[in-house]
Predict the structure.
Amino acid sequence: MSSLTTTVKAMVFDTFGSVVDWRGSITRDLTRWGQENGFEADWTAFAVKWRSMYQPSMEAVRSGKRPFTILDVLHRESLEVLIKEFGLEAMTEAQRVHVNKVWHRLDGWPDAVGGLTRLKSKYIIAPLSNGNISLLTDIAKYTGLPWDLNLSTEVFRCYKPQPQSYLGVCAALQLEPGEVMMCAAHNDDLLAARNVGLKTAFWPRPTEHGPGQTTNLVAAHDWDIVARDIRDLATQMGV
Amino acid sequence: MSSLTTTVKAMVFDTFGSVVDWRGSITRDLTRWGQENGFEADWTAFAVKWRSMYQPSMEAVRSGKRPFTILDVLHRESLEVLIKEFGLEAMTEAQRVHVNKVWHRLDGWPDAVGGLTRLKSKYIIAPLSNGNISLLTDIAKYTGLPWDLNLSTEVFRCYKPQPQSYLGVCAALQLEPGEVMMCAAHNDDLLAARNVGLKTAFWPRPTEHGPGQTTNLVAAHDWDIVARDIRDLATQMGV
């Protein structure tokens, strides 16, 4: 492990699910908002369904069928489908804007701020997320994530797991791929990063999708680091 | 002033000269480095000459004669000229790389960290600088600037004062120009920002270029805020 702590200069983090708890946060936020505004729904099911539209919504951009479009816009398009499905058509435009921005109001997992603060003392830390720049900026302010900089894939006009996401980060930081560690609770993100030479760190988020989760419960490959959470990652990285 | 403190959501800062003291920092850094490595020069004159090549070096990019090229590369090209001029040809390649990176090791003016920390409690704060992403990241780590995100013009593939620098920031943050304040010790930067609708804040750095400085000693226009320094800017912005 000691060579990692001297080789790695920057650690970049998947955000949704890995650093912040989108399912719990959206459920809490929209439950309260629904009560205050007279909308009733199974907000957990609503959050899970919304998230399930995330990967398909980016596919048109990744395949080149559609010009680069920021995630806020893709979220809004999915929201319109959900509103019909959940019978929430009474929402005004202003309410839809507010609900869509729930993705800017996500709480970190309990270990996120503490673990990242320790890592920042030695490494450059940044989100490498498909969330757009303003979304990631708002989350960081909202929940107190101490990023050094914001490496939204919006900067590189692409979406993970496209290789230019990971290589764009290395170029922007003027680092070799082996000096950058991709950190995530998702094996597929790490595999794409490793394929272009980045170091990798994994920790599980076994309730990201709820109690019945079946994916990403364990490390699927021999990642450079397998940790319990971001605090443990900090310990293993020597801070 | 009270309407500014409710309208403005993000404050973006010119960095070289406005937030960090390039002349003093380079003089200190290279004087020590020269003593340790056997190179003698008037390092203040060296710093001032280097900086004087800054605007001309970006002009080929701004005019479209040259594809977007990051500032580290432009700095290096200027350095090669300076090395000849100052008779420092004995520098090895590794030494030239180290010296060129002096722009990544700049100290903040004494009010910078304190003032920015206060502003961050209410506003999104970021550098909007022609420094490239890694340069600005390194400066922030080196001197402790608490940016929320890094809005190097490298993100927008242009150089200030091109309008797309300022408008790119507004688009990335999903804010109207009137919700973003350009903050600088340089009147021309503020004028370009105001021309596309941003709010403006000025404070002087009367020794940025040394004791004989004749430019930017006072506000040349009726900027939204004229402050003594970044601490005073924080006070005027209500934090």
Summary: The CA atoms of residues 190 and 200 of chain A lie 6 Å apart. The domain at 22-104 of chain A is CATH 1.10.150.240 (DNA polymerase; domain 1). The first strand of chain A starts at residue 10 and ends at 13.
